[in-house]
Specification:
By secondary structure, this protein is mainly beta. It contains 2 helices and 23 strands. It folds into 4 domains: about 50 residues; about 45 residues, no CATH class; about 40 residues, no CATH class; about 160 residues, Jelly Rolls (Sandwich), CATH 2.60.120. The longest helix has 25 residues. It is rod-shaped and about 145 Å long. The termini are far apart.
Length: about 375
């Protein structure tokens, strides 16, 4: 029995020494020597074989190394797999390719310019795009790109815009370019749109075009009760005995002028404006007519009749004349604007009523004028 206890203690002390050496390497705490002494004391106290495991070998029996943290012998081959192969990188940056030649340039996708420069990689490439001014765009000539005037037009020239208005060529940023479109303004009783390079007026049915872009009425019927712009020529104020008025006459209404012809005061003019201001209408070859009535003594002055003339902005020219018309009858004064240059700028139509000679004691009555029409 004593011999077996000694063998057990010897094995325990040997194991304790081995763990003390292995523990620091495996992260284990060393066995306290006092624990081994306690074990010895306890064994000596007569615990006997109860302190030993059932399968504890004798001290002379070799103990196989089956501990999970067993340290392999220093001379044992390493069973772990070899590390993977590691690629050896060459010295310096990776190789690159030149995209362009320094000193050249190109047009970018947004109509700007891009210069060829050397990048940090040591290779050439096109730099960021430089935007052209608003009136310029990129133009490539050979191997160089530059911002050039995008529009070429003659300063102050005009053209029709996309919306029917007019655009004028202006200077902007050192370039000529088409300015903003200006809409054509339609006049009363008409429409306007750009034709060629300027606004052209189209007048409604019943109106003709005047040179200032307005529309003149072709007819004066006086059915509204207004004199419709007709007025007395002030050169003949001695003939008129009252203001112009619209009165009922026959089945409708007519313009009424109260007059008195006496001695050498034998003619009066009624002026019918066709176009406003000093503008004129092109009436060459067109016809006109007007109805004239006399309401007064049965016997008119000698050589009494009616006439008409066209008044221009810078003078007037005769158009037609009818004479020796009977009183109290509906007479139609009519004629044609002659095929001459002044008929292209008629400003007013003049209706004259009177006698070519001395009226003697005179004639007083009312001259009615109605249905003035230009065709």
């Amino acid at each position: 029995m004593r011999t077996q206890i000694r063998r057990a203690l010897t094995v325990a002390l040997a194991a304790s020494s081995l763990l003390a050496c292995v523990a620091p390497r495996q992260g284990l705490l060393p066995i306290d020597q006092s624990d081994a002494a306690t074990a010895t004391t306890t064994a000596d106290a007569g615990q006997g074989d109860a302190l030993l495991p059932a399968n504890t070998p004798d001290a002379g029996t070799p103990v196989p190394d089956t501990a999970p943290n067993a340290v392999p012998d220093a001379g044992a081959p390493d069973a772990s797999p070899p590390p993977p192969d590691v690629a050896i990188m060459p010295d310096g940056p990776p190789a690159c390719t030149n995209a362009c030649t320094v000193g050249t340039s190109q047009c970018g996708p947004n109509s700007g310019t891009q210069a060829c420069v050397t990048m940090a990689t040591g290779c050439t490439a096109y730099a960021a795009e430089m935007t052209c001014p608003a009136t310029r765009s990129c133009v490539l000539r050979g191997s160089g790109a530059s911002c050039e005037c995008a529009t070429t037009c003659t300063l102050n020239s005009r053209k029709c815009g996309t919306s029917g208005g007019v655009q004028q060529c202006v200077s902007q940023g050192g370039c000529t370019t088409w300015g903003a479109e200006t809409a054509c303004q339609p006049p009363p009783n008409g429409s306007a749109t750009c034709t060629g390079s300027d606004c052209a007026v189209t007048c409604k049915s019943g109106y003709f075009s005047c040179s200032d872009g307005t529309c003149g009425a072709k007819a004066r019927t006086f059915e509204s009760g207004a004199v419709e712009g007709v007025y007395q020529d002030p050169s003949f104020n001695g003939i008129f005995t009252g203001p112009l008025a619209v009165r009922s006459f026959g089945a409708g209404k007519a313009l009424a002028a109260d007059v008195k012809f006496q001695g050498i005061n034998t003619v009066m003019w009624l002026r019918v404006p066709l176009c406003p201001g000093v503008s004129g209408a092109s009436l060459r070859g067109k016809s006109f007519r007007a109805k004239v009535f006399l309401d007064g003594p049965a016997t008119p002055p000698p050589d009494f009749g009616f006439g008409a003339a066209a008044l221009l902005p810078d003078g007037w020219g005769g158009i037609a004349e009818l004479s020796s018309l009977s009183v109290h009858f509906n007479e139609t004064l009519q004629g044609t604007f002659p095929d001459v240059e002044y008929s292209d700028r008629v400003n007013e139509l003049i209706i004259s009523v009177g006698s070519k000679g001395n009226t003697g004691s005179g004639w007083a009555g009312t001259v009615f004028v109605d249905d003035i029409q230009i065709d």
